[in-house]
Structures are given as C-alpha cells and as structure tokens.
C-alpha cells in the first residue's frame, strides 16, 4: 500500500518541481515555510526520484511475471488438449481395429457360404431324385404285375 501511495505521490508532483530548484527550499526545524505545499525530507525526495526511475523496471518485472503465469496456464491447457487428443486417437484406433476384424470375419463367413452349393441346386436334385425313385418304383411294380401301365 505504501508503494502505491509513493507512486501516486510521484505522479501528482509535477516533474518541474523535482528538476527546478525555484520550487525547492531547504528548511530547518522551526523555520516557517515560505509557501503552502508538501514538505519532504531529502531522503523522501530521493526515494520518490528513485521510485520514479525504477518504475518502468518494476512494470516490466510485473508484466514478465504475469506473462510467465499466462504462458504456464496456456501450456497446461495445450498439454491437456494434447493428452485428450491422443487418448481419443487411441480409442478411435481401437474401435477401427475391432471393426476391421469384424469385417474380415464377415468376409470369411461370406466366402465359406459362397463355396457351398446353392439351395436351388439341392431342391433341383431332390426333385430329380424323387422323380427317378417314383418312376423306378412304378416300373418295377409294373414288371411284377402289380401295377398296370397303359
């Protein structure tokens, strides 16, 4: 709080008051002041001048500190996003691998099914075989005179 008061004080005192000796009058204890104003010891004036001269350095240090903190926060956020991205990539890759294995299994099953004879062939063979057995039975029964063939 004292630092801020000194900074404010240094901003309120005109710069000519610090550089022009006509506004500065040395006083001894008990001597009345020739004008209204602020009474400062030489050490206080030196402190104000030093503070004013180092003010830009302090601002730079504070700015660098805030900048470093923001960079650390940004780097943390970037790291967090990269980690999530890598995790998501691994999950998607695993899902892709599972889907690829399933697709290969389905292709193998389809290839096995395609190598089997069609059900229409089995139906055709059944019809032809049934007809042959029926004709053969009728022919044999006709030979033994159980059935008359016209």
Walk me through what this model shows:
The protein is mainly alpha-helical. The chain folds into 2 domains: 2-116; 117-150. It is 77% helix and 0% strand. The chain contains 4 helices and no strands. The protein has helices spanning 2-12, 15-19, 42-115, 119-143. The longest helix is centred in the middle third of the chain and has 74 residues, at 42-115. The radius of gyration is 53 Å and the shape is rod-shaped.
Number of helices: 4
Strand fraction band? under 5%
**Shape annotation:** rod-shaped
- Overall pLDDT level: 80
Tally the beta strands: 0
Largest sheet: none
SSE string, helices as H and strands as E: HHHH
Q: State the share of residues found in helices, binned by percent.
A: over 70%
Instruction: Indicate the radius of gyration in whole angstroms.
Output: 53 Å
Overall tally of domains: 2
Q: TL;DR?
A:
This protein has four helices and no strands. The protein has helices spanning 2-12, 15-19, 42-115, 119-143.
Write the layout of secondary structure elements.
Blueprint: H1 2-12, H2 15-19, H3 42-115, H4 119-143
Helix pairs in contact: 1-3
